[in-house]
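Need residues for this backbone.
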């Protein structure tokens, strides 16, 4: 009678072992890729949908490995977090993106704001993180006003006091703080009121749920209203269709990001985009 259960355990063990060896392989390749600077920074435009002008970019990593092929960030970022490789990876990303934005901004009338994603793990030593951010911005000559930190709601709940102190310092320094994937976590209105944040980014899933008839819009509406009453900015991510844009504009959400405007672009393609 135990046979079936036994078999299941074996299958399950094999799955775990496969998962483990996949991760070990990703870890080994990732370590090399970071050393050799093989992970590219892509840039996705953030738009003011009223003026149809770009206001900034979000840095998103792209890794095409010789052995593993294309590995999406959703796969390698968790490995980087578990292994601590997130620290060197983040530092390379920061230096490259900050330097790049500074260069682009030299030729622009209205400077672009650079948004970088920060992982929860990075807030474990929050004092070091804050001083590193300041150091890199200074070295790359990027004004804090043109830098933005994106963190998810869950990051706020892990090591929350440390994290909140760090965010407070970054905000005092002039950096903007955005809550990414907003609506997927558990933030209450009362809790949000106390946080040092500037902006809520409505999660893509809610934007994709918007129907042409507007029946699935309650959460989007609620987030827009919540942002308004807290005097926070609001950005919609994952805008792919014209009707989504129209809906958001009608509801006074003016800042958007998504394939309707542009996919994340390589440095060269971003340059073309800015010069067109
Ligand atoms: P995220 O921060 O929520 O980034 C938005 C994701 O949505 C990106 O996926 C982007 O390419 C995708 N996206 C943007 N517009 C659209 C759209 O209109 N439709 C659809 N279907 N997708 C859209 P990506 O680049 O695969 O990144 C996935 C996640 O990996 C990011 O989610 C972020 O959490 C993480 N990530 C990427 N780069 C970094 C990084 O440098 N550091 C950290 N810590 N995390 C990163
Ligand atoms: Ca993000
Ligand atoms: Ca997001
Ligand atoms: Ca996400």
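Answer:
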């Amino acid at each position: 009678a135990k046979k079936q259960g036994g078999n299941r355990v074996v299958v399950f063990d094999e799955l775990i072992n496969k998962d483990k060896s996949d991760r070990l392989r990703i870890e080994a390749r990732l370590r090399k890729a970071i050393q050799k600077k093989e992970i590219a920074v892509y840039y996705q435009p953030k738009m003011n949908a009223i003026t149809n002008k770009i206001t900034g970019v979000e840095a998103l990593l792209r890794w095409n490995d010789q052995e593993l092929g294309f590995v999406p960030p959703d796969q390698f970022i968790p490995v980087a977090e578990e292994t601590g490789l997130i620290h060197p990876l983040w530092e390379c990303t920061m230096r490259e993106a900050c330097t790049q934005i500074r260069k682009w901004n030299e030729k622009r009338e209205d400077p672009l704001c650079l948004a970088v994603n920060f992982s929860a793990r990075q807030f474990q030593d929050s004092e070091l993180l804050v001083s590193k951010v300041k150091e890199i911005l200074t070295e790359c000559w990027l004004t804090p006003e043109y830098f933005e930190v994106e963190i998810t709601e869950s990051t706020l709940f892990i090591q929350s006091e440390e994290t909140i102190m760090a965010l407070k310092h970054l905000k005092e320094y002039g950096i903007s703080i955005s809550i990414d994937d907003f609506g997927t976590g558990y933030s209450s209105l009362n809790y949000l009121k106390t946080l040092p944040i500037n902006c809520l980014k409505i999660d893509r899933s809610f934007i994709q749920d918007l129907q042409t008839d507007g029946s699935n819009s309650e959460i989007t509406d609620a987030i827009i209203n919540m942002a308004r009453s807290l005097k926070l900015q609001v950005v919609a991510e994952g805008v792919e269709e014209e009707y989504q844009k129209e809906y958001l504009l009608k509801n006074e959400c003016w800042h958007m990001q998504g394939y309707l405007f542009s996919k994340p672009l390589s440095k060269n393609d971003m340059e073309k985009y800015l010069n067109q």
